[in-house]
Amino acid sequence: DCGIRSGADVLKAIALGADAVIIARPFVTAVYGGEHEGVLAYIDKIGSELKDAMAMCGAASISEITRDCIR
Fold first, then answer.
1. Where would I find the H helices in 1-71?
2. Chain centre distance of CA 58
3. How many other C-beta atoms are found inside a 10 Å radius of the C-beta of residue 69?
4. Does the pLDDT at position 18 exceed 70?
5. Domain residue spans in the chain?
6. Which candidate, 39, 50, 36, 38, places its Cα nearest to that of 6?
7. Are 39 and 31 in contact (CB under 8 A)?
8. Are 59 and 47 a contacting pair, CB within 8 Å?
9. Is the dihedral of CA 30, 23, 65, 16 positive or negative?
10. Residue 52 — pLDDT band, cuts 50, 70, 90?
11. How far apart are CA 42 and CA 20, in angstroms?
């Protein structure tokens, strides 16, 4: 388990140079808690959190996320 749990975590990883992230445990919890709908809700949550974090650092796209976003 890598510790990526939120959209902000995704932004931090990308800002530090990651090309991709893997999220495991939260998806397992979502499956057990809400099956297919739980997974879809978690995907929506992560997407919304990432969009919010990007807006707060002024990044309009993934390619605009830089180390400056986490300083």
1. 7-15, 25-57
2. 16
3. 18
4. yes
5. 7-70
6. 50
7. yes
8. no
9. positive
10. very high
11. 18
Q: What whole-number distance in Å separates Cα of residue 39 and Cα of residue 66?
A: 29
Is-above-0.70 flag for pTM?
yes
- CA 29 – CA 19 distance, rounded (Å): 25
For 1, the token pair is: 């388990």
- The two three-digit tokens of residue 18, written as one number: 């990651």
Distance CA 6, CA 49 (A): 7
Cβ contact 67:15 at 8 Å = yes
- Report pLDDT digits (tens) over 20-51: 999 988 888 888 888 889 999 999 999 999 99
